[in-house]
Amino acid sequence: NAGVTQTPKFQVLKTGQSMTLQCAQDMNHEYMSWYRQDPGMGLRLIHYSVGAGITDQGEVPNGYNVSRSTTEDFPLRLLSAAPSQTSVYFCASGHRGLTEAFFGQGTRLTVV
Amino acid sequence: GESVGLHLPTLSVQEGDNSIINCAYSNSASDYFIWYKQESGKGPQFIIDIRSNMDKRQGQRVTVLLNKTVKHLSLQIAATQPGDSAVYFCAENNNDMRFGAGTRLTVKP
User: Fold this and answer.
1) Distance separating alpha carbons of residues B17 and B81, to the nearest angstrom
2) How far is B22 from chain A (nearest CA, A)?
3) Residue among B34, B96, B98 whose CB faces A100 most closely
4) How far apart are the first and last CA of chain A?
């Protein structure tokens, strides 16, 4: 099993550009989520999904869109990148209910 | 709003000593708590979890204590080793998972 795979690992965008951060898991997990991690801060929840076709907003959803068309994939879209979105992004997955989440290795995004 | 937070941002201990990392939470309805370890340049990794119907759970060299009366969670690491140096996060899982700011543990040789 590959676990949770995020691509790309690094990305530089210009302000106003759009891009999609990819996240895939091969553990048949119902729950998937996206976090951002800024220096000196913890992980803040952007969006999450408890199953295919279902998404919900987290703590900091503005500027980001998600969709969950399959169990395996949960892409995060930035429609118009802003410097404030410079961060490290982590995708996580897990089974529904009171269980742990498994994290990908992160995508370091810089918006200039 | 409800949040998960940590008491101390940094902790420095001598190799071989025990470490205690604390966490306060504010959602009294939370049922499940997790401790994660994050090494530099990596994603968080699961260490240990505890459900709200327990007050203590032990793993290999780690123990989590839950005090629901004061909404406090702690992670104890026995005989701390250099490989334990990392940032530690507590998280509460209520349909979604929310994290605290983290504590950076440094182990001095």
Assistant:
1) 8
2) 15
3) B34
4) 36
